[in-house]
Design brief:
It is built from three helices and five strands, in the order ββββαβαα. It has helices at residues 62-67, 83-90, 95-100; strands at 2-8, 17-23, 33-38, 44-49, 74-77. A hairpin with a 5-residue loop joins strand 3 (33-38) and strand 4.
Length: 107
Amino acid sequence: MIYKLYRKATGEDAGQVLAIISENESKIIDDFEVYLITNSSPVELKAYKGNDIKVYGEGRPLWSEITWTKNGKWQAVDTDIDLSKIVAGMSSPQFAESLTELTDYFL
């Protein structure tokens, strides 16, 4: 899987929401996973996989809403962090530890 990090760029929650997108090299839609992280209190994580990511907003898949560059709502973030470890950490008891690596990316 290939992992990429995005930050919400516009809207009332701009800078407060991060998304980690993972995709299979084949780019088959069913192989996409989207992890949304908000810095509300408490920190909230939403994971979308398979059929859960096919309908969102105005009928676009959630991954499309985030990765579609012309909409200007999300911006890609360059990082040296191993996002695969972050994703693995999200399902572990050490979730909070994994999440702290991303806090610098919130505005």
